[in-house]
Amino acid sequence: MAEHATTEHFEHLEHAEHAAHSNDNFTTKVSITVAILAVLAASVGSLETIETAGVTVAKNEAVLLQNKATDAWNFFQAKSMKKNMYEIAAAAGGPKADDFAKQAKRYGSEQDDVKRQAEDFEKKSEARLHASEGHAHRHHVLTIAVTMLHISIAVATVAIITRGQRWPWYASMILAAVGIAVAGSAYLPGGAH
Fold first, then answer.
1. pTM for the full model?
2. What sign results for the dihedral spanned by CA atoms 21, 26, 30, 35?
């Protein structure tokens, strides 16, 4: 798809070049507009691609952190089982009851540390999932913006094809302004979920 978009930009630039040779001031202005819009569309398209990668990276990090949390919870359970076994042995009495009680206390302390670690991994995983949602939201907004910029390029080209009709150029400028505003809104505070 990226290859098609690059080819499409070259086609628009080729139309603009032909129009520039016509020695018509308005057509030259529209040709320059098409070239600028093509650059803007390519730039917004690149941002869209970056946000797509951000979704993937953040989700992968979330999964890895959740796996670490799961491992930590498993370790917590193992410590809990050992603690319980030593508590039972200490409660049974006998010559090693004090040693068993110390071991139970040690495993209880270790268990608390592992629990904090597991909870920390879970919080970090949630944060990465939230970041992924933000990237996905920006990607969707940028998709709309780049589409509007592509449409504005096509509409501006109509001004060249119709030999100087002004309304397509004006319409393309409005579409481009809206497309740029939409792209900018993707990065406003509170704009990403």
1. 0.72
2. positive
Q: Tens digit of pLDDT for each residue in 36-73?
A: 999 999 999 999 999 999 999 999 999 999 999 999 99
Sorted by where each starts, the structural domains of the chain and their CATH numbers stand as 2-185 (1.20.1270)
